[in-house]
Backbone:
């Protein structure tokens, strides 16, 4: 279920106790000076983005957060048979589902990388249960994509099994800021981000794989999966991953 968008910026309210209006008539004076909903999370504002690029430029800001990578499976193969317009429609469908799921849990849709997305939870809107929120977003995304992809497959005469989403999640300390010289990129970096990306690569279509750190932060979810060790690219030692049902 898609939640109603926030009427005020959650970032400004939580961090500064400023009720900055995002929608409706009260927001019109703010729109006139360029303040509007952020593209990374429409429940925060462009002032928050400015704070990211100004305050975080030092590149030494550590945050405790959860990172989720979600990848659209089957996309590359379909590019050989479907028209570009149809592939664009498929990507729009996937991105819309990602946005709805991530923003419902106050996450930041940090990047769209071809047929994959990267989201950060616990920044700039903070929640102590950010690992559980990342899992909730992943579950909502899988559920929404099953419905959307089934309709897409029927419309375009495709095998429903040809589309799916693989998701990986990790939690821990990472750096968030602007990186690069000729091209500056606002994002999170660190081992946590790398592990989440590799966990996503190991996830089968329809699966959600999380790390030991995520598992240990969400024991209230009553895990019945004992996990298993995966050999992930770039890591010498096996990494234990758990399947979130």
Residues:
């Amino acid at each position: 279920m898609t939640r109603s968008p926030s009427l005020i910026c959650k970032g400004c309210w939580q961090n500064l106790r400023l009720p900055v209006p995002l929608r409706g008539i009260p927001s019109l004076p703010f729109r006139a000076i360029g303040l509007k909903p952020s593209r990374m999370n429409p429940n925060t504002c462009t002032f928050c983005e400015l704070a990211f690029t100004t305050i975080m430029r030092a590149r030494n800001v550590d945050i405790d957060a959860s990172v989720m990578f979600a990848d659209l499976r089957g996309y590359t193969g379909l590019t050989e048979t479907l028209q570009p317009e149809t592939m664009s429609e498929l990507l729009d469908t996937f991105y819309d589902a990602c946005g709805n799921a991530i923003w419902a849990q106050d996450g930041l849709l940090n990047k769209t990388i071809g047929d994959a997305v990267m989201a950060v939870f616990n920044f700039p809107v903070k929640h102590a249960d950010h690992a559980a929120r990342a899992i909730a977003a992943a579950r909502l995304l899988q559920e929404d994509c099953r419905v959307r992809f089934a309709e897409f497959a029927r419309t375009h005469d495709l095998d429903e099994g040809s589309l799916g989403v693989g998701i990986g999640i990790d939690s821990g300390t990472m750096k968030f800021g602007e990186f690069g010289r000729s091209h500056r990129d606002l994002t999170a970096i660190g081992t946590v981000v790398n592990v989440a990306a590799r966990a996503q690569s190991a996830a089968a279509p329809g699966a959600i794989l999380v790390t030991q750190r995520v598992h240990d932060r969400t024991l209230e979810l009553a895990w019945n999966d004992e996990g298993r060790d995966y050999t992930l690219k770039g890591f010498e030692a096996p990494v234990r991953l758990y399947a979130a049902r």
The mean pLDDT is 88. The longest helix spans residues 130-155. Helices lie at 10-16, 28-32, 46-55, 75-78, 84-104, 130-155, 191-202, 212-217.
